[in-house]
Amino acid sequence: MQTLSDPRPYRALLSILLVLTLAFAVGCGRETREDDRGAEELYAEAQRALNARNFSAAIDLYRQLTTRFPFGRHAEQAQLDMAYAMYRGNQPERALTTLDRFIRTYPTHPNVDYAWYLKGLVHYEQSMGFLRRLFPDQVVDRDQQSARQAFAEFRELVQRYPQSRYVADARQRMVFLRNIMADYEIEVGEYYFRRGAYVAALNRARYTIEHFPGAPANVKALELMERSFQRLELDELAEDTRYVLEYSYPDLLDRTERESLLRRLWPFD
Fold first, then answer.
1. Which residues of 127-158 are buried (b: 16+ CB within 10 A; e: fewer)?
2. More confident residue, 123 or 135
3. DSSP letters along 144-164, please?
4. CA 53-58-62 angle, 5° bins
5. Is the dihedral of CA 206, 207, 212, 217 positive or negative?
6. Residues 6 or more apart in contact with residue 31 via CB below 8 angstroms
7. Segment 211-233, tens digit of pLDDT
8. Angle formed by the axes of helices 112-131 and 92-105, to 10°?
9. What is the pLDDT of residue 121?
10. 78 near 47, Cβ under 8 Å?
11. Distance between CA 207 and CA 82 in Å, rounded?
C-alpha cells in the first residue's frame, strides 16, 4: 500500500520527464545540425539526388532550400530544378504550378525560356499518354487539351525567345503534335462517316484543314470531304473537293490520274 509520502510515483514521473527532455534535446540537436547546412550545401545535395534519379529526395531538398533561403542566389534555379524533378517524378500538376509561379515571379530571368520549354514538355508527355491509346477500329472522341496546351507552350517559347537553344526541339515537337492532332481529327471523322453522320464528318475534315495546315492528314481530310459530299448527294461540292485534292497533291496521283488532271487544268490542246 502506497502512502502520500511514498516517493516512488514522483521518481517515476521525474524519469519520464527526463526521457522526454532528452528526446527533445536530441531532436533539436539533429534539427540544428540540418539547419546548419547552407544554401550551397543543400543545392549540391539536391543535385546529387536529382542525378541519382531520386526525385522525391531532390524535391524535398529543393523545397528546403527555397524555404530557408528564398532570396539566395541558388533559390531561383532551385525552383526550376525542382519543377524538373517533379516532371521526372510523375508529378505533372505540381511541376506546372511551380513553373507558372517561376514565370510570374521571374519574368526576366535568363532561364525563363527553359520554364516555357519545360511546361511544353509536361503537357507533351500528358498528351502522349492518351494519343498512344488510339485504336484504328474504334475511335472515341477524347479530350486533346494536353496536346493543344503543349503546342501552345512550345509556340509561346518560339515566339518569345526565337534565339533560345530549346527552340529547335520545340519546333520538332510542334510538327509532331500538329500531325498527331490532325490524324486524330480524321480518325474521329471516319468514325462519324461509318455511322452515317456525314455532316459531323465534314466538320472534322474542314477543321483539320483549317487548323493544321501542312499536316499530311490534309489529304485524307479532302478525301473524307469528297466522300461525305457524295453521300449527302452534293455532287458539285464533291467534284470541287476532288479538284482541290488533285491540284494540291498531284504527286499522289498515278500517271493516268495526273494526265487527266493536266487535261482539265489546260484543256486547250
1. bbeebeeeeeeebeeeebebbebbbebbebbb
2. 123
3. -HHHHHHHHHHHHHHHH-TT-
4. 150
5. negative
6. none
7. 998 898 999 999 999 999 999 99
8. 160
9. 95
10. no
11. 39
